[in-house]
Design a protein that fits this description.
This protein is an alpha/beta fold. It contains 9 helices and 6 strands, in the order βαααααβαβαβαββα.
Length: 233
């Protein structure tokens, strides 16, 4: 195991929310399905998987093509309200290993940011449900002009934390999310969940966060940094 040293600590760790920190993708899928059905349309499981990790406004426009006769802002609010109601009723379903790793990062004093395409109230609800202060910063879908897979959200998170994206580790669960994190220049780690993430040299894939420790994160960070051109002797 690579020892934890100052030289291999990331400057910050950036987290996606839905599907990475919390297992809320089924909540979104059910909300989308019910909304389309209320207008007499059909939203298949394949339709739902096609928008996992994408911006809510992009998803809303696709729902309109399936018969939802509401404006995109109304759709975003309807879906968000539905998912938030379910979280309030059932609690936030955290992904395996997420809370344990997040707590260890916080105890080590490593800055953390939540980088999500969900809007502010939804992200705040999840963060406020944490059993400890989990994040220094929230970057949400209503704060950026260009949603994932564009790197804007991760670049904004790094800028607001005052760190170089290349000195950050980012955790993601979807193809749009991992593309966003990788294109921002972070050490991007994909944890596939609802949808598969194809292997690619731009990022690292792991099966789960369960059992992942700060030492493991430092090892991934050091290994990836050693492969970047600026660190090649």
């Amino acid at each position: 195991m690579t020892p934890v040293t100052h030289s291999n600590l990331p400057a910050a760790v950036l987290w996606d929310m839905d599907g990475t920190l919390v297992d809320t993708e089924p909540f979104w899928i059910e909300a989308e399905t019910d909304l389309v059905a209320s207008f007499g349309g059909v939203w298949t499981h394949e339709d739902a998987l096609s928008v996992v990790g994408s911006g809510l406004w992009e998803s809303a426009r696709l729902l309109q093509t399936h018969g939802v006769k509401l404006g995109v802002d109304e759709i975003v609010q309807n879906l968000t309200d539905t998912v938030m109601s379910r979280i309030r009723a059932e609690g936030a379903p955290y992904r395996p290993g997420a809370l344990e790793l997040l707590r260890e990062l916080r105890e080590a004093g490593i800055p953390t940011a939540l980088v999500t395409m969900s809007i502010g109230p939804m992200a705040s609800l999840v963060v406020d449900s944490l059993p400890f202060p989990g994040f220094d910063l929230l970057v949400t879908g209503d704060l950026v002009d260009k949603p994932k897979p564009h790197p804007e959200s991760y670049l904004l998170a790094a800028a607001r934390l005052g760190v170089n994206p290349a000195d950050c580790v980012a955790f993601e669960d979807s193809p749009p999310g991992i593309r966003s994190a990788a294109d921002a220049g972070t050490v991007a780690v994909g944890i596939p969940h609802a949808v598969a993430i194809p292997a690619h040299p731009d990022y690292i894939l792991r099966e789960t966060l369960a059992g992942l420790t700060l030492a493991d994160v430092c090892a991934l960070f050091a290994e990836r940094r050693a492969l970047t051109p600026e660190n090649t002797l």
